[in-house]
Design a protein that fits this description.
Layout (H helix, E strand, L loop, with lengths): L3 H17 L12 H8 L3 H13 L3 E4 L3 E4 L4 E4 L7 H7 L4 E12 L2 H7 L6 E11 L2 E11 L8 H4 L3 H9 L5 E10 L2 H7 L6 E10 L5 E10 L3 E4 L5
Parallel strand pairs: 3-10
Antiparallel strand pairs: 1-2, 4-5, 5-6, 6-9, 7-8, 8-9
Helix pairs in contact: 1-3, 2-3
């Protein structure tokens, strides 16, 4: 812990452990910078760095003039195979989910989107923009593409529920396989607008390709998740 960077990292991990073990509960006011300085016998600069990272990573919420408070636990989503859609996963966590359709438009197939679906140039594709909310806070922004010939005329009320369940129930299409790529990205102006966060805010980015049993690509999507409000769970069986 001789280096300042290692010291503030140590303090941050210690404080995270106290939050996770519920020494500090959701909504509790967090110790002040001065109190933490006294406990760990470190400079205010070191503590300020640790607390700033806890805010950025979603463990604390700052309220001007009042101090820092322990934030609600992040909503976690299971990436392993599961029969539970996201709403059911949230319910199991004691959280309420909501999907809001931002726009549905028909665009002409071209470029990489055309290639992913194996369509002819200018074939119609439905472009769907949605946001997801957890306990009335925006956590996810999604752009999904579905060819018109696969599920023509998708409506607002359909995309404000599970899209895969809609495809099964209303269009008799079952998703057999999804391939997901997870990366870290920073919110640009457009993403920050939909996620209600600052430009440059750290986000998870997931690109998903969904196929039916024949290997036909049914849906392609790009999703952005606020890093301070979302975590992911992966289970492996051996």
């Amino acid at each position: 812990m001789a280096e300042k960077q290692a010291l503030h990292a140590f303090i941050k991990e210690e404080l995270i452990e106290r939050i996770k073990s519920k020494d500090y509960k959701v909504g509790d006011q967090f110790p002040t910078e001065l109190e933490i300085c006294d406990e760990f016998n470190v400079s205010r600069t070191t503590v300020r760095i640790a607390l700033s990272q806890l805010v950025q990573e979603g463990y604390l919420i700052r309220q001007r003039g009042r101090g820092s408070f322990v934030a609600e636990p992040k909503a976690h989503q299971t990436l392993s195979p599961t029969n539970e859609h996201f709403g059911q996963q949230l319910k199991a966590q004691g959280k309420k989910g909501e999907i809001i359709a931002k726009s549905i438009e028909v665009i002409a197939a071209k470029g990489s989107i055309q290639e992913r679906f194996g369509l002819n140039e200018a074939d119609p594709i439905q472009k769907i923009k949605r946001t997801r909310m957890v306990n009335n806070e925006i956590t996810q922004y999604e752009i999904a593409y579905i060819p018109w010939q696969i599920a023509p005329g998708i409506k607002k009320e359909q995309v404000e529920n599970s899209l895969y369940q809609t495809l099964t129930k209303d269009y008799n299409i079952d998703i057999h396989k999804t391939t997901e790529i997870l990366e870290i990205t920073l919110a640009d102006k457009d993403i920050s607008h939909y996620l209600d966060c600052e430009v440059g805010h750290p986000c998870f980015f997931i690109e998903t390709i969904a196929e039916d049993k024949t290997g036909r690509v049914i849906e392609f999507s790009r999703s952005y998740f606020r890093g301070d409000k979302t975590s992911f769970k992966v289970e492996r069986l051996y």
